[in-house]
UniProtKB/TrEMBL annotation:
Ranges of Polar residues composition bias in the record: 328-337
Cross-referenced CDD domains: PTK_Ryk
Occurrences of domain WIF (ranges): 104-232
UniProt topology in membrane: Single-pass type I membrane protein
UniProt main location, coarse: cytoplasm
One Pfam short name: PK_Tyr_Ser-Thr
Self-association and partners: Interacts with DVL1 (via PDZ domain).
Biased composition (Low complexity): 305-322
Protein name as catalogued: Tyrosine-protein kinase RYK
Record key words, sorted: ATP-binding, Cytoplasm, Glycoprotein, Kinase, Membrane, Nucleotide-binding, Nucleus, Phosphoprotein, Receptor, Signal, Transferase, Transmembrane, Transmembrane helix, Tyrosine-protein kinase, Wnt signaling pathway
Enzyme Commission code: 2.7.10.1
């Protein structure tokens, strides 16, 4: 489902008054307000309430309404306003006596398919142009390849149709099933516009469909510009088409079994077999070459893929607009059953120390090039240092690094796990990822893992430090800064999802930050030792981040990108609470039952309703109903821009 559908369905709780929507079942505002996941199912409750059954009397002090709460955003409110104003204009008309004429609109089914609203969207109704609807730049879902418009005219109306695409390399020129010039049909008709991405690059494409209308009696031209935008992606694997053989006359070859001799048939058979074998061999070579070179194209592909999503982001503000305190209770919310996903197993215990060292041998460097400085974090057996790496060719050049290593009492299995988990992001290149750089695995020395240095360190520790400082401290951050951090994390996870990489342990503790508030996702090597309160063993001799895991991952050990989306929702909650621990009052052994019963963490203090609605979408029990990371990037980017308008 689309993210805007989820947000519209989840709704937001009203800050003032009490509102109950009979359509979506959202009750908002007031003490003990209920956040519902559909009619009759309380989603978040500060105290027990009765189900709102059909025919039941209304509780005192409650009123019925259809608005999902103040401040609904992400474009749906603007489009709904356009629909209402368009209907109002059409009904009022000049003098109320205008003769019905030209109508151009999107049907209710088409509007529901694109944005999830149950309404017709008129661009022209009875010759009256709805400028509000035309000014709205509608986002076309990536999976949607065609648009449908309904139109008809009572009298003769000529039209001329044209298209303008801002990036022809990313999207082909749209095609229609009607001619580009002619007369508007007298009866109700539907024409289709096909939007096909070229698959050559990752880019958000803006399309303008220009429809020039000429009424024969007046001979005046009315120009209608329909604005659309769509995210196009590069095809990861090029489809190899089998060669097409033609005869000398460029037609198919006809065989006459009566007149062809047996020797000729045998010869043709052997030639065909030989050609097929050659083609298969050639295809295998091409695929092997593409696979070997695919990793070299990753950085270029990704820099283009996220440009459309984050180009509108401003740099984090150094001035504070709202300081957050995060002393929130653990309130709750019921949900339904969950499906079965594919199980991905990664048994680290089966990897030996020698195998782990062999996997990182190609990035190993001499221990003499590394100088250890301050200890940044320390656990029972692990440490993280601020280190210096000397350049191999010019020792005068120094590069700051994170250095992960172990103490003398570390066991062989602990060393093996550190090396293995450090390779989770290896070979991936993205501005919001921090993969392993080098290792030191010399005999007789404790292994070291080196990563590029980020001078403000671990994100979770940074957030907790910001919570403790005074409001006038230069390190205090605004709500807009926190949303900007969330966007960066979503961009990095979107890249991992496209590469079919599952992180399995996304959290603020596994991110780092620098002085410009740039956030990067890291692996989870040593996290169990450095943050022991975030991991729990549930009797299976495996420490897991129970409070960050989705129900299917927690119960069945089924991992997917949808599970990472769940963890992102918890990470977003960490950002808005400045590093508070989620579900802190819940026993880890009862987390599965707690989630099955539908309970979730509550909306943090000072967290906007719209942002909490995004979190709630990430915690949908059905993985198919959770948003994709690319949708989260788009939605958070628009919310970040909306916040910037008020700073």
């Amino acid at each position: 489902m689309r993210l805007v559908d989820c947000i519209l369905r989840e709704g937001v709780r009203a800050r003032q008054g009490r509102v109950l929507c009979p359509r979506c079942g959202v009750i908002g505002g007031g003490a003990g307000g209920v956040y519902r996941d559909g009619p009759g199912r309380p989603f978040l409750s500060a105290r027990p309430v009765r189900d709102m059954l059909p025919g039941a009397p209304d509780p005192p002090g409650w009123r019925w309404g259809r608005q999902p709460g103040p401040g609904l955003w992400c474009g749906s409110l603007l489009l709904l306003l356009a629909v209402l104003l368009g209907v109002s204009e059409a009904q009022s008309g000049p003098g109320g006596a205008a003769e019905p004429g030209l109508n151009v609109y999107m049907s209710e089914d088409e509007v529901r398919r694109l944005i999830g609203l149950d309404a017709e969207l008129y661009y022209v109704r009875n010759d009256i142009v709805n400028h509000y609807a035309l000014s709205f730049n509608l986002l076309v879902p990536t999976e949607t390849s065609s648009l449908h418009f309904s139109w008809h005219a009572k009298s003769k109306v000529e039209y001329k149709l044209g298209f303008n695409v801002d990036n022809p390399l990313a999207m082909d020129v749209p095609q229609t099933n009607i001619s580009l010039q002619g007369d508007v049909p007298r009866s109700l008709s539907v024409f289709r516009v096909d939007l096909f991405c070229s698959g050559k690059m990752d880019m958000e494409v803006t399309l303008i469909m220009q429809l020039n209308i000429t009424i024969s009696s007046a001979k005046n031209i009315t120009v209608l510009n329909f604005k659309r935008r769509k995210m196009c992606y590069r095809k990861i694997e090029q489809e190899v088409k089998p060669p097409i053989s033609l005869d000398r006359n460029s037609t198919r070859i006809h065989f006459d079994p009566v007149n062809v001799a047996p020797t000729t048939s045998t010869r043709v058979f052997y030639i065909s077999v030989g050609v097929c074998c050659a083609v298969i061999f050639l295809v295998a070579i091409i695929l092997a070459v593409l696979h070997l070179h695919s990793m070299k194209r990753v950085e270029l592909d990704d820099s283009m893929s996220d440009s459309g999503s984050s180009q509108g982001l401003s740099q984090p503000s150094t001035q504070t607009t709202q300081y957050l305190r995060a002393d929130t209770p653990n309130n709750a919310t019921p949900v339904t059953s969950y499906p079965t996903l594919r199980i991905e197993k990664n048994d680290l215990k089966s990897v030996t120390l020698q195998e782990a060292k062999a996997k990182v041998k190609d990035i190993a460097i001499s221990r003499e090039r590394v100088t250890l400085k301050d200890v940044l974090q320390e656990g029972t057996f692990g440490r993280i240092f601020h280190g210096i790496l000397l350049d191999d060719k010019d020792p005068s050049k120094e590069k700051p690094m994170f250095v992960k290593t172990v103490k003398d009492q570390a066991s062989e299995s602990q060393i093996t796990m550190m090396l293995t988990e450090s390779c989770k992001l290896r070979g991936l290149h993205h501005r919001n990822l921090l993969p392993i750089g080098h290792v030191c695995i010399e005999e007789g020395e404790k292994p070291m893992v080196l990563l590029p240095f980020m001078n403000w360190g671990n994100l979770k520790l940074f957030l907790r430090q910001c919570k403790l400082v005074e409001a006038n401290n230069p390190q205090a951050i605004s709500q807009q800064d926190l949303v900007h951090m969330a966007i960066q994390i979503a961009c990095g996870m979107s890249y991992l999802a496209r590469r079919e990489v599952i992180h399995k342990d996304l959290a603020a503790r596994n991110c780092v930050i620098d002085e410009s508030l740039q956030v990067k996702i890291t692996d989870n090597a040593l996290s169990r030792d450095l943050f022991p309160m975030d991991y729990h063993c549930l009797g299976d001799n495996e420490n897991r981040p129970v409070r960050w895991m989705s129900l299917e991952s927690l119960v069945n050990k089924e991992f997917s990108s949808a599970g990472d989306v769940w963890a992102f929702g918890v990470t977003l909650w960490e950002l808005m609470t400045l590093g508070q621990t989620p579900y802190v009052d819940i026993d880890p052994f009862e987390m599965a039952a707690y989630l099955k019963d539908g309970y979730r963490i509550a909306q943090p203090i000072n967290c906007p309703d719209e942002l909490f609605a995004v979190m709630a979408c990430c915690w949908a029990l059905d993985p198919e109903e959770r948003p994709k990371f690319q949708q989260l990037v788009q939605c958070l980017t628009e919310f970040h821009s909306a916040l910037g308008a008020y700073v």
